[in-house]
């Protein structure tokens, strides 16, 4: 078993010890396997991978509400940057059509109409369109059939920007699964907006709970919703005959199948799994997430390559994101979005 970061507390800096994993550190500091919060605060250090931590590495452990330190209020930088943008000279007044942004409900804490600002990813794109001198109008729409975004709605020209998709390695697009290949061939990606941690949830008594390598999942029935890309699973060899895929339509159905014994492994981003646990009346007390195997997948906004204004939209989003990272607003949006979602879920 991984060693626990002994009596470690949030709102501090932690020095990694031999045997630590991000999961064990998060469990000690926050009482949860979900280490996305730690990654967000240390992305420059951890971007190369989190499966192996080097002893002696210093990690910032944010407060549970996302503050980097106890005396730094979440949302302060957002307000400062909003005031600065409001005071900046406006553009020439020429008519520019609103950017039509397309997303879906049901992806906590990233996109959902019930979340403040529509969720973290919606807030990131709309804020980016207001920064770096962009001052671009936008309209956000929610269509819950996510496959239709790529197959129909964006290609038809009904929408301009899609939120948000795995940024694929398109070097060998022909070898990718259908959805990933279509994204590579027909769409352009923004710069990375966020790195999602993909993890593997099992029942605590499952023989797959302590898998140390992807080969240890041999024989597992592995579940991921059909609307999610699967290239990370393919890249790690998690395909037949090693495993059997189960691809339900509904986002939450994999968790239900795990609880009922219909699948052995639930492969999904750890924030989404954490959301399932919070909504579970039993608190998911019999569910664990593997501490040894994880992958960070960058997320980006997409525009159709044939969209005549697509490059302008991407340039604006990328410029806004760069300014947000430099000012610290990016982290403020991320932290405040996660804190707001956690408050709703409690």
Describe this structure as you would to a colleague:
The protein is of the alpha/beta class. It is built from twelve helices and twelve strands. It has helices spanning 22-30, 36-41, 43-46, 76-87, 120-128, 146-153, 178-186, 231-235, 253-260, 270-279, 310-327, 329-345, and strands spanning 12-15, 58-61, 99-103, 138-142, 161-166, 187-189, 194-203, 221-223, 244-246, 265-269, 287-289, 295-304. The strands form two sheets. Strands 3, 4, 5, 6, 7, 8, 9, 10, 11 and 12 form a ten-stranded mixed sheet that branches. Strands 1-2 form a two-stranded antiparallel ribbon. Helix 5 crosses helix 11 (310-327). The chain starts with 11 loop residues before the first strand and ends with a helix.
Give a topology summary:
Elements: E1 12-15, H1 22-30, H2 36-41, H3 43-46, E2 58-61, H4 76-87, E3 99-103, H5 120-128, E4 138-142, H6 146-153, E5 161-166, H7 178-186, E6 187-189, E7 194-203, E8 221-223, H8 231-235, E9 244-246, H9 253-260, E10 265-269, H10 270-279, E11 287-289, E12 295-304, H11 310-327, H12 329-345
Parallel strand pairs: 3-4, 3-5, 8-9, 8-10
Antiparallel strand pairs: 1-2, 5-12, 6-12, 7-10, 7-11, 7-12
Helix pairs in contact: 5-11
Count the E strands.
Answer: 12
Largest sheet composition: 10 strands, mixed
The global form is globular
What pattern of helices and strands is seen along the backbone?
EHHHEHEHEHEHEEEHEHEHEEHH
What percentage of residues falls in helices of 4 or more residues?
A: 25-40%
- The proportion of residues in beta strands is 15-25%
Radius of gyration equals: 20 Å
Structural class: alpha/beta
Oligomer: single chain
Uncertain runs:
1-7
């Amino acid at each position: 078993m991984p060693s626990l970061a002994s009596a470690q507390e949030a709102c501090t800096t932690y020095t990694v010890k031999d045997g630590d994993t991000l999961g064990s550190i998060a469990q000690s500091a926050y009482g949860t396997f979900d280490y996305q919060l730690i990654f967000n605060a240390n992305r420059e250090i951890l971007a190369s991978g989190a499966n192996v931590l080097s002893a002696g590495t210093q990690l910032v452990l944010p407060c549970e509400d996302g503050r980097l330190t106890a005396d730094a209020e979440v949302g302060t930088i957002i307000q400062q940057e909003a005031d600065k943008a409001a005071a900046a000279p406006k553009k020439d007044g020429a008519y520019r059509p609103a950017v039509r942004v397309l997303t879906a409900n049901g992806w906590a804490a990233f996109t959902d109409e019930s979340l403040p600002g529509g969720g973290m990813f919606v807030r990131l794109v709309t804020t980016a369109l207001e920064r770096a001198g962009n001052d671009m109008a936008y309209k956000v729409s929610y269509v819950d059939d996510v496959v239709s975004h790529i197959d129909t709605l964006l290609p038809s020209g009904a929408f301009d920007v899609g939120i948000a998709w795995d940024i694929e390695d398109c070097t060998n697009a022909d070898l990718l699964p259908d959805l990933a290949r279509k994204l590579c061939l027909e769409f352009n990606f923004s710069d990375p907006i966020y790195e999602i941690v993909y993890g593997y949830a099992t029942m605590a008594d499952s023989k797959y709970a302590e898998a140390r390598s992807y080969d240890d999942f041999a024989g597992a029935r592995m579940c991921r919703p059909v609307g999610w890309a699967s290239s990370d699973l393919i890249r790690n060899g998690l395909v037949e005959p090693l495993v059997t895929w189960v691809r339900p339509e509904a986002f939450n159905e994999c968790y239900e199948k795990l609880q009922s014994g219909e699948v052995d492994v639930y492969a999904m981003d750890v924030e989404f799994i954490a959301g399932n646990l919070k909504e579970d009346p039993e608190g998911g007390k019999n569910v664990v997430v593997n501490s040894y195997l994880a992958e960070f997948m960058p997320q980006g906004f997409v525009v159709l390559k044939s969209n005549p204004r697509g490059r302008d939209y991407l340039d604006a989003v990328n410029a806004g994101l760069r300014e947000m990272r430099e000012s610290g607003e990016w982290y403020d949006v991320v932290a405040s979005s996660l804190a707001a979602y956690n408050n709703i879920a409690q």
